[in-house]
Amino acid sequence: MAHQSNLARVNSTFLPSLVLMPLFSKPIAAKRALTEANLSISDINGIAFTRGPGIGCCLAASLNAAKTLAAVHSLPVVGVHHMQAHALTALLTTPTHTPSGEINSSYPIFPYLTLLVSGGHTQIVLAKSLTSFRILATTVDESIGRAFDKVSRKLKIEWAGMSPGSALEKFCLLPEESVYPEGYIPFTSPMPRRLAFSYAAFHSHVDRILESVGGIEKLTTANKLAIARAFQRAAFEHLEKKLDLVLEQCAQQDIKVGHLVIGGGVASNMFLRERLEKCLADTPTGEVIKAVFPPAQFCTDNAAMIGWASMHRFLAGDHDDYSINPRSKWSI
Ligand code: KG4
Ligand code: ZN
C-alpha cells in the first residue's frame, strides 16, 4: 500500500521524528508517545511542531516544549503551518498504488484543489506543490466548524467525548422523523454569486428560529432534529455552491485539476463525504475530479499530519532556527 510505502520511505531515511501538538504543554505526553512507540529520545532525529495559525498561548506552549527538548538533545526543529498540514495529509494516507500494483487514480497529483473545513478556517485552496498554495475562496466571517459548534450548543446537543460538530452529525442520524416547529423559516445560502464563504448567518438563523418559537425548551426532539438536519444540509450546500464557482474559475483560467482533497475536522463528517462525491460526479464544467478524503482520524487535528508536513524539510537537511516564533495569524 502506498500509505505503507510512504511510511516505509520516510522510515528508512529519517524517522523517527517527534511531533509536538499545541494541546500538550507538559512533557508527560511526549514521554507517553515515546513509550507507546517503543522508542527513546535518543532514537529521535528532529522535532516538528505547529507554528501557526492558531491561539497564541497554545502555539507558544508547544513551540517552547519543542525548542527546549530540541536544545537539550541537540536536535533540529521544523515549525509547520497547520493548514498546509491539513492540505497535505492525503499524500500520506492515500496509497500511491492499488493492491495489484497499478497507479492509484485517487492519489492526489499537484496541482490539486483542497477544501479546508476546520474550527478556524473554511477555504478552497489550490495546492501547487508541497510549499506553494493559493487561496481561491475563504470565509468573510466565521468558519463552518465554528458554526457547527455554535448550532450544536444552541440546540443543546451533547455526546460524551465528542466535539460539538461530530455530536451534531450523530444527532442527525437518529432514526426519528424531522418535524419542523411552527413558523420555521428555512436556511438560505448567503452571497450566492460571490466567491467567498459566510457562516455567521447560519447560527444567527438558529437564534431567530429559537426566538420565534419561544426558546429551546419549547422544542421537541423531532423539532430539534428538523433544525439540525436543515442546518447541516444548508451548511454543506453553501460549500458545494462555492466549489462550483471555483471550478468555473479554474476552467476560465485554464487551471487543470484532477483531485479535490478534503481536510480539517468537518471533513470527518460522513454526510459531507457522501454529498461531495455526488457533487463532483456532476461538475458545472464537466471536469472529472476525484474527491480524496483522508480517514476521519486524520481529518481532525492529529500529530501525524504535522510530522508528515515537516518531513520534506528534514529530508532536505533544512530546518528552523531555535529563535523561531509562533505565528497566530499566518496565511497559507
Ligand atoms: O481541524 P480541527 O480538528 O481543528 C481545527 O484546526 O480547528 O477541526 C475542529 C472542528 C470543530 O469545529 C469540530 O466541531 C468540527 O471540526 N468537527 C465536525 C465533525 N468533527 C469535527 N463538524 C461536523 N461534523 C463532524 N463529524
Ligand atoms: Zn485543524
TrEMBL record:
<dbReference type="GO" id="GO:0046872">
    <property type="term" value="F:metal ion binding"/>
</dbReference>
<dbReference type="InterPro" id="IPR017861">
    <property type="entry name" value="KAE1/TsaD"/>
</dbReference>
<dbReference type="Pfam" id="PF00814">
    <property type="entry name" value="TsaD"/>
</dbReference>
<feature type="domain" description="Gcp-like">
    <location>
        <begin position="29"/>
        <end position="308"/>
    </location>
</feature>
<dbReference type="InterPro" id="IPR000905">
    <property type="entry name" value="Gcp-like_dom"/>
</dbReference>
<dbReference type="GO" id="GO:0005739">
    <property type="term" value="C:mitochondrion"/>
</dbReference>
<keyword id="KW-0012">Acyltransferase</keyword>
<dbReference type="GO" id="GO:0061711">
    <property type="term" value="F:tRNA N(6)-L-threonylcarbamoyladenine synthase activity"/>
</dbReference>
<dbReference type="InterPro" id="IPR043129">
    <property type="entry name" value="ATPase_NBD"/>
</dbReference>
<dbReference type="GO" id="GO:0072670">
    <property type="term" value="P:mitochondrial tRNA threonylcarbamoyladenosine modification"/>
</dbReference>
<keyword id="KW-0819">tRNA processing</keyword>
<keyword id="KW-0808">Transferase</keyword>
<keyword id="KW-0479">Metal-binding</keyword>
<protein>
    <recommendedName>
        <fullName>N(6)-L-threonylcarbamoyladenine synthase</fullName>
        <ecNumber>2.3.1.234</ecNumber>
    </recommendedName>
</protein>
